[in-house]
Design goal:
Helicase, Ruva Protein, domain 3, Glutamyl-tRNA Synthetase, domain 3, 3-stranded parallel sheet, 4-stranded antiparallel sheet, alpha/beta, RNA-binding, 20 strands, single chain, Rossmann fold, 20 helices, 42% helix
RNA sequence: GCUGGGUUCGUAUAACGGUUAGUACUCAAGAUUCUCAAUCUUGCAAUAGGAGUUCGAUUCUCCUACCCAGUACCA
């Protein structure tokens, strides 16, 4: 029988989750869902020095916002899983809480000759590196150097035992075998071979804080948690040979997961991977959620910028993956169905902020008018407009009080949604449907409020006020256009003069649309204010 | 430097040895409209370079160039 698919996303809580990290989580999630397997969230907090308060909560919230929900892990539907139980045989999911577990594995490796104790101090290693650099070489702790350093390979058994007992600065290092070709397979990149002579003896466990390093913790936990596929960033590809060797040393080769290394997200312009700085410079978020670091520095987030999580996820999914055809719009469920590892791109993908906006625009248009109305409400309220009633409310507007019924707002939303990328930018075109202009765009005023235009517009206003058909877009438009034509007036001048009067600017919504919303009284008032200004 | 990975229009990508190298974003022009936006139409624009294999290479092999990552008691 095929083993149940279990994949994990294992971020380190050293800061906010970067959008590249979200993509890695997403691909893991899609892979798991598609195979009816489990998606596990594990926190790799084995670096006590780089821990950032709030980072873990941020990661959990960001994934939740994206709709990437773990089946298992440190957080399950908002509940923190702290300890192992029948339901959670693999818990806890925070490596700091698994602390006591790793030493025995490291020592097992030593006992079997796959690792050794190293007593060199950071200062000694620093010195060795500096010296090597002076000669234009790179120091590596490994085959060529290990027999000249202070470790259990060079020291006597007694001395080794004494140092282990009496000092706390030592580490356990993997003993990389000589001249062995490691043959690896990557689900995205295919077959890869590396000779162990180019590899060094990585630290697996540190006595100083009694914590494993990534490499050990990763292999041990993936094994214990029965992970079947490891889908992670490309930065891990160089340590894949070590990980293969570790599985072999532990004798876990038969259950070793398959690996997939995802290419990195690159900055929109120039070279290099996407960083926080690029976002600040080019004006787009690199984080899913707003983040304030311990120093009080704020980074913007997709959520706060007004992106829909569906649009953000869709956009991210298409950066480095494609369905094999021209389709670009996918819901999460559709992604789950369409996703396939062999359509994942090998090369890094440059992030395109314009395309991200395009996705949001598409999602905004797909959204139901009623839903958008709810989302638009807070925007209106922020501009001092109150929305009364609910979906059943009759159409009503009170420009004096700034009160408009829910149904009125919905009608506005329907009209202006085509002009917006984000919910909040529906306000600009909609503003004149909620309040009279308080000022006029200077250039437009100079151009369109001429004596001649004002006179024609005044007559058009009188005509409209006397119009006794239904004050709706179609009849008003027909009548007004007919009136202007009958008088043989220049259409553009009259219309733009009216728009100026109605909205304060010469560009925006159609005149008949505006009139159908604001009605005769408001028309009369706005024309009077414009005339008063002149 | 060394090791590994990568390279199709500006960007994301399609074309699993045979196409006028397709699509989307961006940009430009036109149509439409009372303006702007939207919409529609059209256009600009790519196989990094060089060898080889082959009747035929975007696709396979090698070399070069360039880019990325790793080279920590960080993940």
């Amino acid at each position: 029988m095929e083993k149940r698919t279990r994949v994990r996303f294992a971020p380190s809580p050293t800061g906010p989750l970067h959008m590249g990290g979200v993509r890695t989580a997403l691909y893991n999630y899609l892979f798991a869902r598609q195979r009816g397997g489990d998606f596990i969230l594990r926190i790799e907090d084995t670096d006590s020095h780089r821990f950032v308060p709030g980072a873990e909560a941020y990661i959990i919230e960001a994934l939740k916002w994206c709709g990437i929900t773990p089946d298992e892990g440190v957080d399950e539907n908002g509940k923190v899983v702290e300890t192992a139980s029948e339901k959670h045989p693999h818990a806890p999911y925070r490596q700091s809480q698994r602390k006591g577990l790793y030493r025995q594995y490291a020592e097992q490796l030593v006992a079997n000759g796959y690792a050794y104790y190293a007593f060199d101090t950071p200062e000694e290693l620093e010195k060795a590196r500096a010296e090597a650099e002076k000669d234009g070489k790179t120091f590596i702790y490994g085959l060529p150097t290990r027999m000249g350093l202070r470790n259990s390979l060079t020291l006597s058994a007694e001395e080794t035992a004494r140092l282990i007992e009496e000092t706390t600065g030592w580490t356990i290092r993997f003993k990389m075998p000589a001249d062995t070709v490691v043959k690896m397979d990557d689900m995205i990149r295919g077959h890869i071979e590396v000779n162990t002579d180019t590899l060094d003896d990585k630290v697996l466990w540190k006595r100083s804080d009694e914590l494993p390093t990534y490499h050990l913790a990763n292999i041990v936990d993936d094994h214990l948690m029965e992970i079947t596929e490891v889908i992670r960033g490309e930065e891990w590809l160089p340590s894949l040979p070590l990980h293969y060797m570790l599985y072999k040393a532990f004798g876990w080769e038969d259950t070793m997961p398959r690996f997939a290394h995802l290419s990195l997200l690159l900055k929109p312009v120039g070279n290099g991977k996407l960083s926080k700085r690029d976002g600040d410079k080019l004006g787009f978020p690199v984080f899913p959620l707003k983040w304030t670091n311990p120093e009080g520095e704020v980074s913007r987030g997709y959520r706060e910028d007004g992106y829909f999580p569906e649009a953000f996820v869709n956009m991210l999914a298409m950066l480095g993956w494609n369905p094999g055809n021209d389709r670009e719009l996918f819901s999460m469920d559709e992604l789950v169905e369409a996703f396939s590892m062999d359509k994942v791109q090998k090369a890094g993908a440059k992030f395109n902020p314009e395309k991200a906006k395009w996705y949001n625009r598409e999602y905004l248009r797909m959204k139901d008018d009623a839903d958008l109305t709810e989302l638009f409400k807070p925007v209106l309220e922020a501009h001092g407009i109150s929305v009364t009633g609910g979906p059943q409310s009759p159409l009503s507007s009170d420009f004096e009080k700034g009160e408009f019924s829910w149904s009125y707002v919905k009608k506005v939303v329907k009209l202006v949604k085509e002009r917006a990328t984000f919910v909040q930018d529906m306000w600009t075109p909609a503003e004149s449907l909620f309040k009279a202009p308080v000022e006029y765009v200077e250039k437009d005023w100079a151009k369109f409020w001429t004596a001649e235009n004002a006179e024609m517009a005044g007559k058009a206003v009188d005509f409209l006020l006397a119009f006794n058909g239904p004050f709706e877009k179609e009849p008003v438009e027909t009548a007004l256009v007919g009136f202007i034509k009958d008088n043989e007036w220049p259409m553009g001048k009259v219309m733009n003069c009216l728009r100026l009067v109605l909205t304060g600017s010469a560009s925006g919504l159609g005149i008949a649309d505006i009139l159908s919303f604001i009605g005769k009284d408001e028309l009369k008032k706005r024309f009077a204010s414009a005339r008063a200004k002149a």
